Amino acid sequence: MLESFTWKAARRSLAWPSATAIVVAIGAVTATQLVQDDRPVAAAIIVACLSFLGASIANVLVSRAAAAQSRALRDPLTGLPNRALLDDRIEQALARSQRSGEPFALFVVDLDGFKSVNDVRGHEAGNVVLRTISRRFQGVLRGIDTVARVGGDEFVVLSVGTGTDEEASALVGRLRTALRRPYRFDGGLVEIDASIGWAIYPQDAHSGEDLIAQADGRMYATKRDTSDESVVRRPALDGGIVRDLEAALERDEIVVHYQPIVQMRTGAVHGVEALVRRLRSDRLVAPSEFLPHLEHTPVVRTLTLAVAADALRRLTIWDAEGHPLTAAVNVPYRMLDDASLVGGLETLLERSSIAAERLTLEIVPSGPGAGSELDEPVVQRLRALGVKLSLDDLGRASSVAAIRVLPLDQVKIDAMFLHDLGRGGERSDAIARSLVELARRLGLETVAEGVESRHAWDAASDLGFDLAQGFFFGHPMSADDLSDWLTTSWPAVALAG
Question: In the chain, what percentage of residues exceed pLDDT 70?
């Protein structure tokens, strides 16, 4: 029996690494010879050593096999489950739900602005961000949930027990809050947002493939804005422009111009819109040349707060000059539920003597995520400040989606609907009238944008707009020039009749 055991051990060792196999084979031969020489104790010792060696090697091989299997089911960069392991978890969730009736939800998370991290900070920074995002998501989720990385900048979350849209929306808020905390690199900051869609089993679909498709479709719906050509044609992010704007903010090379907004009924100046410019030695750079490059960087928040600070300071000066006005500051849609922006506005208002309701945040409903659900607690905190919210460009597809979810006070009707009013453009007339009526039914103040002629003014007045803005009575101008204009050039002769 001993001889049989040792030769079986030698044969099994052929599957082991060659050096180990040779050692076992020599040991087996030696043990057999000892038995033949009537030295059973020595033979038994050798057999025991061979058994121990065999068990140790078996453990190593099992560990290596398990590690190889784990690597095959894990993303090598983040250590998260990959698509194969996610599919297995989904099948388990389906089987469990069919037995117990417990629902679950799948979330597709697509990072917005991740490409800019690689472009501006480098690929190693991008890898750090991905690993950090993975840890943050795991910190939000429970142990029974799964987060998988299924693409370069795409994740899927499986949340067991999530069975209603309200519960799913709450989890989206927690994921986005974790995701949007800044990432620091060498003294600089990187920020990431995401578009997120979800589907719930069994109310939305009955298979893993269909659930992913449903969630994916909803995620992409938050990115679409087919009416906005500036988005479709947006240039690739230029890291040099981003760094230039960072430096310009530090050197105080950002200037703010103001365009008047007047009351339709009386012609009195109601307020101004603050419009940012980049100051260079030879010219002023229009915002269209740099703002698209800032959308997914922390610079857009810094710039927004700088413009708001300038507007509040100017309102104080105009008050002293006898011109109590309001001021509107442009804010990208995706920044509305940015807790850091809300905190910055809160600080500015606390330091200013200007009442919060005299500051309007003019929401630009373009770009990825326009019209998507927002982090409700942060939006409520923003509303609690007392500032007013205005929606720009009502009439574009993205603005119609945004009006559904925003607690608005005011809307601006897009200028393209005013140009043909009263000139036989029946469709333009009908659309403009419908938009004004929609705003009126929602209890919102209306602003006619792009009023560039007496005809447009009269047409806007006939439609019942509350306010108007345009070159007909005032171009964007410096704050000092606006002070002179308020004193010497208003009311405009064209409106006197």
Answer: 74
Query: What ranges in 239-390 are assigned the alpha helix state H?
Result: 239-250, 291-294, 299-320, 339-351, 376-384
How many H helices and E strands in the chain?
19, 15
- Which residues pair with residue 361 across a beta bridge? 329, 389
Query: Other CB atoms closer than 10 Å to residue 199's CB: what's the count?
Result: 23
Residue 177 included in any domain: yes
Q: Does residue 227 fall inside a structural domain?
A: no
Q: CA angle, corner 224, sides to 223 and 225, nearest 5?
A: 120
Same domain flag for 252 and 218: no
Among 193, 222, 251, identify where a domain stops. 222
Identify whether residues 270 and 289 lie together within a single domain: yes
Query: What does each C-alpha distance from 344 to 143, 262, 298, 339, 440 come to in angstroms?
Result: 35, 29, 13, 9, 32
Same structural domain, 213 and 361: no
Of residues 140, 169, 195, 178, the one with CA closest to residue 333: 195
Choose the final residue of a domain: 13, 45, 72: 72
Count of structural domains, the chain: 3
Q: Which domain holds residue 14?
A: 2-72
List the chain residues with pLDDT less than 70: 1-71, 185-189, 221-239, 281-282, 288, 292-293, 296, 366-373, 397-398, 419-425, 490-497
Confidence (pLDDT) at 473: 86
Distances (CA, A) of 415 to 91, 397, 448: 52, 15, 7
Q: Model-level pTM?
A: 0.63
| 362, β-bridge pairs | 330, 390
